[in-house]
């Protein structure tokens, strides 16, 4: 039974990306190092990785961010978008997001949701835990845990 549980955990870690409420980034490291975590399973050289990282930062609206910039120097919205960029680079079929817009301003929240909806249209399953009714209204299906 322990072996089956371990294999299940390994499978989930392999096929999923998890967006933490507190971003799940290495705060004392730079943006590049954090994005490298999304590229662990990709076989490409340094130049290709650098291009992928710059492209994904542009996709999440962070063209003004430098790869050498430390995470602790970023705003909350910027850090959340770096976390999302890391997930995009990992390219998982399943994305789990925990209160991903809780500490963000409405404009940044809308931008993050647009990116997630774009990813959903790329045949990904996205599960979001949230208290935000604006996000509920954008979901294909809502499960209210208070009504179970």
From TrEMBL:
<dbReference type="Pfam" id="PF00005">
    <property type="entry name" value="ABC_tran"/>
</dbReference>
<keyword id="KW-0547">Nucleotide-binding</keyword>
<keyword id="KW-0067">ATP-binding</keyword>
<dbReference type="GO" id="GO:0051301">
    <property type="term" value="P:cell division"/>
</dbReference>
<dbReference type="GO" id="GO:0016887">
    <property type="term" value="F:ATP hydrolysis activity"/>
</dbReference>
<dbReference type="InterPro" id="IPR003439">
    <property type="entry name" value="ABC_transporter-like_ATP-bd"/>
</dbReference>
<dbReference type="GO" id="GO:0005524">
    <property type="term" value="F:ATP binding"/>
</dbReference>
<keyword id="KW-0132">Cell division</keyword>
<protein>
    <submittedName>
        <fullName>Cell division ATP-binding protein FtsE</fullName>
    </submittedName>
</protein>
<keyword id="KW-0131">Cell cycle</keyword>
<feature type="domain" description="ABC transporter">
    <location>
        <begin position="16"/>
        <end position="102"/>
    </location>
</feature>
<dbReference type="InterPro" id="IPR027417">
    <property type="entry name" value="P-loop_NTPase"/>
</dbReference>
């Amino acid at each position: 039974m322990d072996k089956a549980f371990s294999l299940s955990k390994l499978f989930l870690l392999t096929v999923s990306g998890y967006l933490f409420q507190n971003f799940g980034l290495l705060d004392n490291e730079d943006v590049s190092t954090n994005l490298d975590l999304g590229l662990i399973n990709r076989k490409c050289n340094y130049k290709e990785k650098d291009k992928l990282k710059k492209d994904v930062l542009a996709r999440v609206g962070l063209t003004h961010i430098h790869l050498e910039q430390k995470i602790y120097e970023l705003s909350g919205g910027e850090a959340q978008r770096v976390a999302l960029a890391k997930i995009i680079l990992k390219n998982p079929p399943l994305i789990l997001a925990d209160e991903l817009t809780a500490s963000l301003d409405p404009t940044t929240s809308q931008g993050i949701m647009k990116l997630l909806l774009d990813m959903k249209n790329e045949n990904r399953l996205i599960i979001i835990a949230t208290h935000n009714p604006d996000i509920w209204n954008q979901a294909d299906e809502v499960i209210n845990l208070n009504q179970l």
